[in-house]
Amino acid sequence: MGGTIVSKYKDITNERFGKLVVINRAENKRRDALWLCKCDCGKFITVKTFNLNSGLTKSCGCLKNKNCHKKYNQYKITGDVVIGLDSNGKTFTFDLADYAEVKKYTWLVDKSGYASTTIYSPHNNKTLQLHRLIMSRKDNFIVDHINRNPSDNRKINLRYATHSENGANSKIPINNISGVIGVSQRKDTNKWIANITVNYKRKFLGQFDTKEEAIAERLKGETKYFKEFAPMALNES
């Protein structure tokens, strides 16, 4: 293992060469033996026996990356909760009960706040989001973050929802001036309007003189149509 010289006809499955671990013999019409190897970074590469033996190939190429040896995730355990830190300094949270499974992967938090990882395979790489790892797939349902914080992946904050229910628990648009989803002000009359979207259909709830009246009506609509999927942020207004 490591730098041991081997015959190109010897089975070197499971042996390590630098950052590469040999998975199995790769199909090759030529006489040279090729080996499918998995790099410590997760990527797969096929390598000739000579290149492994001589040390010409020690990784999938990631050794040329100056951040190759950087530890991507750090974890702090507080009671039953784990706070993860990615390589960009962004945090994500999950239950201690899921720690053993979560730490198998390298996680990055995207600009929307979702922690995700790339699972590499010889034929098809795929992206896995942390909340999907924690909550198994359920047909016709998606995983909803109850408090609308996608970096909070504690089970108490995750639930199955239809696309319509998930939309009901959406974030407040950037251009919203009322601070409440579905409440806006008409520029021509300065009146406040309350609307709600149910099953992809917009319902008019009323027009009011004050924002507070419009918010109150929107809250009634939330309770009536969304029930437990009503946006929590309405209680913060």
Give a verbal description of the structure.
- The chain is an alpha+beta fold and 237 residues long.
- It has 3 domains: 16-64, no CATH class; 74-161, Alpha-Beta Complex (Homing Intron 3 (I-Ppo) Encoded Endonuclease, Chain A), CATH 3.90.75; 171-236, GCC-box Binding Domain, CATH 3.30.730.
- It is built from 5 helices and 15 strands.
- The chain has helices at 49-54, 99-102, 130-134, 163-168, 211-225, and strands spanning 16-17, 20-26, 34-39, 44-48, 74-78, 81-85, 91-95, 108-109, 115-119, 126-129, 142-145, 158-161, 183-185, 192-198, 201-208.
- The chain has a 4-stranded antiparallel sheet with strand order 1-2-3-4.
- The chain is elongated and about 85 Å long.
- The protein starts with 15 loop residues before the first strand and ends in a 12-residue tail after the last helix.
